[in-house]
Amino acid sequence: MSWTIFIWAFLVGGAICAVGQLIMDIGKLPPGNVMVILVVAGAILDGLGWYDPLVRFAGAGASVPITSFGNALVHGALAEASRHGWIGLITGIFEVTSAGVSAAIIFAFLASLVARPKG
Amino acid sequence: MKAASRDDRVTYQQLVDRNRPARPVVANTIRAFVVGGGICVIGQVVQTVFVRFGHFSQTDAANPTVAVMIFLSVLFTSLGVYDRFAQWAGAGSAVPVTGFANTMAAAAIEHRSEGWVAGIGGNMFKLAGPVIVYGVVSAFVVAIVRFALTHL
Question: B29 and A96: CB-CB below 8 Å?
Fold first, then answer.
């Protein structure tokens, strides 16, 4: 791995966020709708087999934006399905994203114990 | 006074549209690009640390990296820094996974006064929920199609 991955991470990650901002501004949509559009886009891109090359090429630039959540959901389902057949499509969906969802729930809960609402 | 006719309402809508300040689309997009790119570079640094010192493979390192980014996001949300930063950064801070964690932590902190179950438990996914719902549903459909195509 060379240092160029940092540049690609910046360019690809920045581009995905810029697309999100454009959808928000031009489509006049609230942030929640934009997140939903991006996560569905991530799932479809993985279905087409285009997201993995992007992750290999841009590293965190592709795996940190929310599009990678959709991609990881599809990955988990397909990996489990290849081992256990059709039922794997249900049982495997959260396999890869467990880290993100669990971490977010645990840290958000702990934060609510110690932090006071601001502004 | 007689109620506003249909024509009046149309004119009022036009007036609103004309006087609403235009969104600075170009400036917003550039800001989102730079901030979002910056957050991904921080993620890449964390990922590189996991690969070098945690002996993860490049792909396996993505999961712990996301967990660390979420921790940082929740930390800065607790300190009241992330939300102020997010107002300025727009999609640049909302699209990375840090923005997802921010909505959960902010909702949990905000509604704590309403109680443990209805407050924290009931509101944590208020903003993040749609992403999970549509993510799972679309992933299920995509995975079915993909699985069917490779196995039929």
Answer: no
